[in-house]
Hints:
118 residues; alpha/beta; 5-stranded parallel β-sheet; 5 strands; 32% helix; 15% strand; globular
Amino acid sequence: MSKRFYKHKLLLDENMPPRSAFPRLNEHFDVKHVKDDLRHGGDDDEEVYKLATSQGRIVVTFNGSDFRPLAGSLPNDYGIIAAPSRWLDSTLDSKLTALLMRHSPAYFAGNFRTITTE
Length: 118
């Protein structure tokens, strides 16, 4: 029996490229960029985290070290995913899409996850 598809909601941190750089991700999931789509550029990391939580979104960031302490600190935390900033947008698009396709919301909720080369 195949897993049921879940359409995750994501919030790209300000340090991430615009969502147009991730066509596969946009095809499958509800993706917003904190600055370009939601007009919250310049917000500190805690405010970005609160915004994501209030909207039921997983934060995706290159700035994992600053977001790690926030993971699980609010109720209804949908999670945080840290990505390597050195990857090409196309690599990040395929790796992030694959990760999200494999896991349900429970895998991310309240957790800090990283994408690696494995």
